[in-house]
Amino acid sequence: MNQNLNPLAVLDHPIYRRLMDLLRVHRFATTTQLARLTSDGYATMRSATRQTLRHLNRLLKERLVLHLERRIGGWQGGSSASIWALTTRGLHALTGQTLRMRNQAVSTSFLAHLLAITETRMIIDETVRQLPDTTAQIVAEPDCWRHYLGTGGQTVTVRPDLFVVVTGPDYQDHYFIEVDRDTENPARVISACHRYQAYYATGAEQRHTGVFPITLWVVPHDVRREQLWHYITEQPDLDSRLFAVITAQQIAETITGGPPSNEYVRGGAV
Known about the structure:
This protein is α+β, with helices and mostly antiparallel strands. The chain has helices spanning 7-10, 14-26, 31-37, 45-61, 88-95, 108-129, 186-202, 204-209, 222-233, 251-257, and strands spanning 29-30, 65-71, 80-86, 135-140, 146-149, 155-158, 162-167, 172-179, 214-219, 243-247. It contains ten helices and ten strands.
């Protein structure tokens, strides 16, 4: 095989394009996450991992992706993970864009946050794959951000990590997803909640889709879940029906059955 192919020729392989497109959207992913993306094409997860690593090494040789070794901690228990990202050459081959990729400059903390977002996306994909006649539209930042005018006429931005629409046989659920790693002061979470509520009050989202997405805070453990829900429900000027707080382990059941909110209406919030 000619190992010096034009990078565009490499992208003729559909799996290569799928792997690179996930990296384009989410910036970083582990070997395991990338293997899960294409696991539906293999008999076992072990086979998917082995073949995915072979594909990634080919892309690495073509200088379309790069490989990081980082001790990322938190969501993966402090283990050292094989992490992949697009190179500037890879982004150009995939999209024609000439933006310079600065993946080595990302802090370990921010990298862990981005990988947690990728993990959330993978869980949603895997869950929907198991549901009959169900699809998920997943939009990552910054494409999922929303803008509105504040009380002083200034532009305010709500910055979810993901916007997700799950469409089943007889329902459609809309979510803004915020991935929380228990590194933010709860006061900052409450400030973000106020921005979502202010955006809800504009009616812009409802005019476009007919519903307002529930804002789903995905947290690493039950202690954080209880803490954030306590703060949200204790705010007299916050409508808690706009929000739900779940652990990462509850993502699949939430996508399947809706978020654990006693006033949640399937489709969106209030």
